[in-house]
Amino acid sequence: MRMLDTMQGMGSAMLLDVKDLTVGFGRHEAVKGISFEINAGETLGLVGESGSGKSATSLAVLRLLPESARVSGAIRFDEEELLALPEEAMRRRRGREIAMIFQEPMTALNPVMPVGAQIAEAVAAHHPEIGRRAVRARVLEAMDEVGLLEVELRAKDYPHQFSGGQRQRILIAMAIVNRPRLLIADEPTTALDVTVQAQILELLKALRQEHRLAMLFISHDLAVVSQVADRVAVMQHGVIVEQAEARRLFLEPQHAYTRRLLASAPTMKTDRSQPLASV
């Protein structure tokens, strides 16, 4: 996309700066001293197989890890150290300046509350000064923005009345309604079929361009990441083994694990008579 290329060429200010991040649970270290940056308006793809430490990294940024977790290093958002913030201050940033889209909408949404009310809760939590009419206007605008139809009627419906792709759009509406600057998307298309997956990726790209939204896009699927990321960081066993501009990484992977990940993804040219490479 030409807009995407233009944004990549802009001298963007650093928004998120993670240095030497380590996350431990008991004797196990899930994340081992990783570092990465995300500029304003940029998407970083964080890729690796299950158990590589991707989700622990995202939860550390949001400070949503259990109290038993050991976290060290530095996580600076807009030059502010998140790990040093009091919990109340972090709560104000979480959902307002940094938002997250979770992998499975049915577990992230409340099954007994209309979806409009759930999006409205996200607005009211961060903007208690806004009246009910203004909140409702924001809710409907967000639902419309993510491509849901008949939003005034559908805002009264419950999660089970929507398809999987529509539920994911509702989660995206909930994430963007407060106009965050950084969106963390944790495997947002894994549970969707290929056609709906493509629609959600196009939606995320459009929202990014419209709002100059930075994204940390987490996935085990390099093919998916190739469609949205400016740069890619590859994780294995809690370590970032390779990090590069997306096009360069896909054309000239330097690390053996990255090459195995690429070889394990089927393409139109894959010889179907041969087994896929394993990671």
Helix content: 25-40%
Q: CATH-wise, what's the superfamily of the largest domain?
A: P-loop containing nucleotide triphosphate hydrolases
Q: What is the overall silhouette?
A: globular
Number of helices: 12
What is the class of the largest domain in the CATH system?
Alpha Beta
Biggest sheet, spatial arrangement of strands: 6-7-8-3-9-10
Strand % is 15-25%
- CATH-defined architecture of the largest domain: 3-Layer(aba) Sandwich
Low confidence ranges: 1-11, 267-278
Largest sheet report: 6 strands, mixed
The name of the CATH topology of the largest domain is: Rossmann fold
Average residue-wise pLDDT: 89
Distance between the termini: 31 Å
* CA radius of gyration: 19 Å
Which structural class should the secondary elements be placed in? alpha/beta
Please tell me the total number of domains.
2
Number of strands: 10
Order of H and E elements: HEEEHEEHEHHHHHEHEHEEHH
What can you see in these coordinates?
It is found in: Cell inner membrane. Keywords: ATP-binding, Cell membrane, Membrane, Nucleotide-binding, Transport. The chain folds into 2 domains: 1-97 and 182-279, P-loop containing nucleotide triphosphate hydrolases (Rossmann fold); 103-179, no CATH class. Residues 1-11 and 267-278 have low confidence and may be disordered. It contains 12 helices and 10 strands. Helices cover 38% and strands 24% of the residues. It starts with a helix and ends in a 16-residue tail after the last helix. A hairpin with a 2-residue loop joins strand 4 (70-77) and strand 5. With 279 residues, it is α/β, with parallel strands linked by helices. The protein has helices spanning 2-9, 54-62, 87-93, 105-108, 115-126, 132-145, 151-154, 164-176, 194-211, 222-225, 246-251, 256-263, and strands spanning 14-25, 28-39, 43-47, 70-77, 80-81, 98-101, 182-186, 214-219, 231-236, 239-245. Helix 5 (115-126) packs parallel to helix 8 (164-176). Strands 6-7-8-3-9-10 form a 6-stranded mixed beta sheet, with helices on both faces. A 4-stranded antiparallel beta sheet has the order 2-1-4-5, covered by helices on one side. The longest helix has 18 residues, at 194-211.
